[in-house]
Each structure stands twice: as C-alpha cells, then as structure tokens.
C-alpha cells in the first residue's frame, strides 16, 4: 500500500514537472516586457520579495543622521540614480521613456511613496535590486552610506524641510543631466 502511494506521488511530480517544462518550452508564458503578468507570476514575485525583505533587510537603525544636509544629499543621489525611472516631485507627469517601457512599471515615488516602509527595506532594494523587474542592484555603484542616504530621503520625502523641498521640486527625470 505504501509503495503504491509513493509511486503515485512520484508519478504526479513527474507529470507536473514535465507539464511545466513543456509549458515553458512552448513559449506560451510570455517573456516580453510589455505583456501582462499572470496571477501565479505576480503572486510568486510579491511573496518572494516580502519574505526576502523580512529575512534579509537590515533591522538596525539608519546610520545616516536625519539632517538637512543628508536629506539634500539624498535628493541629489535620487536625481542622479533614481528619477529616470521613479519620477520626480511631480510624480508621473511626465514619465520618462525608460519608465514607460519598463516591466513592471516602476512606482512613481512622489505618488506611490515608501515613507511607511522600514528604511532597511529601501536599503535592501537599492543595494540588491529586485529580480524580474527593472530595478537594478546599486551594490557596485553606490557605497552603503550613499544607499542609506537614499533610504533616509525616501523615508522623509513627504515631509522635507523647505530648502530641501525647493531642490526636490526642481529635479528632472528626463533627459538625465
């Protein structure tokens, strides 16, 4: 009885894996960036990202102090590295050609902000990127301090001091200057 049940489980796994292989090899699962993702793909990506952030994102407090100088540095880093995809203080008006062509559509952070996310989550996303999206890893481009400075700006971008806000509203997302 146990042998028959084990054989059934193995046979089921072989059929499921073979079916998945044939489905992937058939081209029926779109790989193009302008195709709408399926429900399973969306669920897997979101679930994996949430679990990874819970497990791997830094839990410690941001080592970059909340000062006008550091927030201003965050605005400049955002303008140089992020605005082309994630927009400006104006939000989606207008999205850059790069942002328009990306899959998944990058959040326009002035509208879809991350102020309620722990800074460690923003740090992890910037440092490591997000697989199967257009979000690159900045591990080799920015120092940890610069990444923490960006995370500080993102956490406080909806309540900036006047001088920093004035600089933020003048950031352009296209062309990159």
How would you characterize this protein structure?
- The protein has 177 residues and is an all-alpha fold.
- It has two domains: 30 residues; 111 residues, Orthogonal Bundle (Cytochrome Bc1 Complex, Chain D, domain 2), CATH 1.10.760.
- It has eight helices and no strands.
- Helix 3 packs across helix 7 and helix 3 runs parallel beside helix 8.
- The protein is elongated.
- The model has no long low-confidence stretch (mean pLDDT 91).
Instruction: Count helical runs.
Output: 8
Largest sheet: none
Task: Tell me the β content.
Answer: under 5%
CATH architectural category of the largest domain:
Orthogonal Bundle
Please indicate the count of domains. Answer: 2
Mean pLDDT: 91
Please tally the β strands and state the result: 0
Helix-strand string:
HHHHHHHH
User: Which stretches are poorly predicted, pLDDT < 50 over at least 5 residues?
Assistant: none
CATH hierarchy, class of the largest domain: Mainly Alpha
CATH topology of the largest domain, which one?
Answer: Cytochrome Bc1 Complex, Chain D, domain 2
Rg, Cα atoms, Å: 21 Å
CATH superfamily of the largest domain, by name, is Cytochrome c-like domain
Structural class category? mainly alpha
What is the approximate shape?
elongated
Distance between the termini: 71 Å
Helix content: 40-55%
Protein name: Cytochrome c
GO molecular function: electron transfer activity; heme binding; metal ion binding
Domain Cytochrome c: 69-158
Organism: Ferrovum myxofaciens
